[in-house]
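Researcher: Re-running this chain for the archive, since the previous output was lost when a drive failed. Same request as before.
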Amino acid sequence: MTLWIACGPTGQGVRAFAMTADRIVAEGQGPDEATALQDMPDAPFVRIGDGPASRLPASVLPETGKSLPVWDQDSPPDIIGAWVRLWIAGFLAARPNWDGVICASQADVTHWIHLSANEAVSSQSLLTPRLVAALDGAPTADAKALSETLSRPERLAAHLRAAEVAGRPKAITGHLLGAELAATRPYWLGQEVAVIADNPEPHVASLSDQGVPVTAHDPETLLRPGLVALGRALRLSD
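Model: Regenerated structure tokens:
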């Protein structure tokens, strides 16, 4: 049985996975790498988020090396975490050569990534989740507020103040998401979108309202097929 280990920081600590060809056989996590790895077997090691960044456009997974680096982009300036690459690899495992847009939320950033022929072509990232948290928005978005700011994004600051005074947290989220959709219109207009997020509902609902074909996916569910695909890409497993 071929065994290998993937390990890397997540922003909330470090996660580690011991892998065989098609399954996770052990998991570890902790505040640092030593804690995450303390119960792991001795095996070849892949560092998640390590190494020189892969400049977009770039393949979803590397074909050589002992790490899975972040993606970066010159214009607009952007950095996309390696765990997001794993989620996307897991998504593509069941959809090879899928052409469309990934909307992936990690921590307090949302990434819009255009995929084509198993490559990430370009990205546009936004701080919408951070702004929702800072302004005490709600987990769900008010559809009318979203539509108002999608139509007139230049009114965002005024819309947010009105929602704040009225005590309408769903409207705050709606206005912020409307501004996000206005900024990313070139990504979702005429495309199929896959939303990868712990809470995909606001994006799924808002994109559906715009007539966009959209599906929701859980990041944790995509990790195993993503890690399996990474092992095969780096020739660590069959």
